[in-house]
Write the structure tokens for this entry.
Amino acid sequence: MAEDNHLKKKWYRKLRNKYKLVILNDETYEEKLSFKLSRLNVFVAAGTLAILLVFITTIIIAFTSLREYIPGYTDVTLYEKVYRLSELTDSLETVVRQKSLYLENLRIVLSGEDTTIVTPLKKDTNHHHQNIYRHASSEDSLFRAEFEEQLAEGDVKLAAAARIGSRPDISHFTFFAPLRGIITSVFDPANRHFGVDIVSVRNEAIKATLDGVVIFTGWTLETGYTISIQHENDLVSVYKHNSALLKDQGTYVKAGDPIAIVGSSGELSTGPHLHFELWYNGVPVDPAGFIKF
């Protein structure tokens, strides 16, 4: 037993025995550098270095793109690609449904099938309108008489109907150009061209000209993908022949927000462009008079 304890102490002392590591000049034997080391110090230093290397390697694998080169790890951009493919698939499904509906409607029209929807009229048996009597109150009679008197004297002037193409008082509005480009067709209400055609770069984003609410998004045979926005003061802007619509009906948009992509959809389109219209109080006006494209 005493011999075993002696061996253990001897082994421990060997670990702590000091050794000198000397670096000499091979020709002059001049001492350049020396270290005093023990076996225990060398073991601790080597263990610390190994742990540090393992830690650094783990950090590199976990937080850098180098891990994709290690077997078993996937590409770091894989999830982004899957997300984009999912969005593209959803868009393609929407387009396929729209095309299928269009072809089905076209088949019904060409086959001569009856597409009229008739709602049977029901006879009103609950109300008896013959018992309704029209009787004006004395206040109403006095107001009518006063108004007719002022009208006869010329104190009241009825506004004439607005003419098509007339310039309304909307010059104080700050319009945002929906698209930067060249006007190829000007405003010509005489030929039923109630807007301007603007040619620009393909796939360019079309932007809302003012703040407002989208009141229509859809596709028609003549104008293709169309979007309309209701603004303040009874002003409506219309954007036609788009390749894609970016906003849904009922969405509130701000001036400059992207709402569509330039395209050439619809039978009346001869190339990628935007047909832009402005309607004020139900009357079309020339957008070029208010906006610099």
Confidence is low (pLDDT under 50) at residues 157-167.
